[in-house]
Design a protein that fits this description.
Blueprint (H helix, E strand, L loop, with lengths): L14 H52 L3 H5 L7 H6 L8 H10 L7 E10 L5 E8 L25 E7 L5 E3 L8
Antiparallel strand pairs: 1-2, 2-3, 3-4
Length: 183
């Protein structure tokens, strides 16, 4: 007499063997379901840690700029220097610290302390975006007003600025945008 039977078949010869198989089957199904449910929470936790790290890098970048620690800020910046090079033709093209210093001290880039950094979204490319508000020296909220003869209807005041942070191939997070420009 054969003791093999499918789980849905009636027991053949030994009801205890069939009950054991059914229990084993249920246990395996439970383990599979548990493993599937575990993966999203792990990836969700990983995404939250990445967002927290990116937010911290963004905050540190602005703080370094505000405190005049330009070489440290440069290490956290992965964006373009093209505009800074255009504004500062007398600075060597690869003098990133000098370009960043000139941006903050003479070109109209506002290197202020952030008071609020809120995640906006993330893209499949790994780019994280944050809305940032800055603090004036007197502690008030920075608001960029209309520029260059425009009125507040044509160019409404702006107090929230969006910045992107990406993770590079070394696993480091880098800020991709310069602080707000005020001519």
């Amino acid at each position: 007499m054969a003791l093999t039977a499918s789980i849905t078949d009636e027991p053949v010869g030994n009801s205890k063997m069939c009950a054991f198989r059914q229990s084993l089957y249920l246990l395996l199904c439970s383990l599979i379901v548990a493993a599937c449910n575990q993966a999203p929470s792990d990836s969700g936790q990983q995404a939250a840690r990445g967002e927290d790290t990116a937010r911290e890098v963004l905050s540190t970048f602005f703080t370094h700029l505000n405190e005049g620690r330009y070489s440290e800020a440069v290490e956290l910046y992965g964006g373009s220097y093209d505009q800074l090079r255009d504004w500062n033709p007398s600075i060597e093209l690869d003098d990133y610290t000098g370009l960043m210093q000139s941006a903050c001290e003479g070109n109209g880039i506002t290197c202020m302390t952030p008071i609020d950094i809120v995640p906006v979204d993330s893209e499949a490319t790994g780019q994280l975006r944050f809305d940032v508000q800055f603090e004036n020296d007197d502690g008030s909220l920075f608001v960029r007003g209309p520029c260059c003869g425009a009125n507040s209807t044509d160019q409404p005041p702006q107090s929230t600025f969006t910045f992107s942070v990406v993770k590079d191939t070394n696993g480091d997070y880098l800020v991709m945008d310069l602080p707000p420009y005020v001519p």
